[in-house]
Amino acid sequence: DYLPRDKDANHLLFHTPAQISRLSFLTFVFQGDLLQKELDLLSEYCTVVDKLVIYLRPWLELKSHLVLPPVSYLGLHSKAVKGPHFHYQALVSALLTLTTPKLRTVQLLHACAEEELRESVSSFAAEDRACLVLCSFSLEDSRGRVLLS
Fold it and tell me: pLDDT for 32-66, tens place per residue?
């Protein structure tokens, strides 16, 4: 993790700007409350990142209305083995409110999550299900297959 917890600390200075600006793939592991600050730093210092993987504890840590850097790929993994349906509803709601100009693929990297999401879909609001099908990115399983169509 190249990015500091405290934005004002500028811990990125331990790495040269050339090293940071050349990153094209980055993996994050941290608590959800800090996610937007980390994404802001990423947007500021890692301008060519195109692929981003975020490891969360529960899916609930992916907050609504996040502003992502201009990545085309977002991989998501949760450490929670089995989450209740409302965790998946929160995940879908958060995905539908993401702000990002280039996002084309969101991939769930946790095999159990794929089946749990499929089981949870029936409990989602009809509007969320429709929005997922029509949104600008595809939601895929760990093997690259579209989950909801």
Answer: 667 888 888 888 877 788 888 888 888 888 889 99
DSSP state of 67: B
Per the listing, tokens 């504890």 go with 57
Alpha-carbon dihedral of residues 129, 32, 51, 84, nearest 10 degrees? -40
Of 59, 64, 144, 66, the closest CA to residue 107 belongs to 144
Helix then strand count (H, E) for the chain reads 5, 5
Between CA 10 and CA 148 the distance in angstroms is: 40
- Please, which residues have CB within 8 angstroms of residue 69's CB and are 6 or more apart in sequence? 39, 42, 43, 46, 47, 49, 52, 100
- Please tell me the pTM assigned to this model: 0.78
